[in-house]
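Re: that chain you flagged

S.,

Sorry for the slow reply, it's been a week of failed gels. I finally had a moment to sit down with the sequence you sent. For the record, here it is as I used it:
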Amino acid sequence: MTFKEIVKEKLLIAANEYKKLLQFDYLIESTSFLYQSEYILRFYEDNFLHLTGVKTKLKAKDFYKKCINKSLIDEDFDCNSNKDLRNKIKEKLKNLSTIGDFFDRNLVVQENFKKNRIQCKIASSDGLCTLGFISIKDSICVPKTLLNRNQINPVLKITDFVLSKRKKNK
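Prediction finished late last night. Pasting the C-alpha cells below so you have them in one place:
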C-alpha cells in the first residue's frame, strides 16, 4: 500500500470515530479555572479536516462527508508534501482513530493553552494526545488542534474539574 492509500484508510476510520463526538456537547466546569467558570466543547463536521493535517480543495464539510460515506478518492486530498508533514499526518490520524472515546479517559486540562504558534482557549489531554479548542461564542469552543502526546504545561494543568456530556441542541 502507498502512503496515500494508508492515509485514506485511516481517514475513513477517523471520521467514524469523530462522528461519535458530533452528537454531544461536553461541559467542563472547575472552581480552579481562572478565566471563566465553564467551557462548552462542541464538535462540527467542518472541524474534522483541520485535525487531520491533510490538504484538499474540497470544503471541510464535504471532505468529512466523503470520509463518512467512504466516497473519498485519492484526488480529493494531498498528503505527500514532505517528510515532516507526513509524520504529523501519521500522528494525527493515529490519535483521531480513537478520538470517539477521548472524553471517557482520564484527562487534564489547561486554560489559555500555548504551544509554539498554537493558541487555544482551553486544551485537554489524555496523555496520548492533546486536543486544543478555540472560542467561537461566549463559552462555546470548537477543536482547533490535535497534538501528539500530552502537551499540557504541568504547572498550569487542572485536574479538579467536572466533565459532563449532554445531547447537542441542534
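What I noticed first: Residues 21 and 89 are 21 Å apart (CA to CA).

Talk soon,
D.
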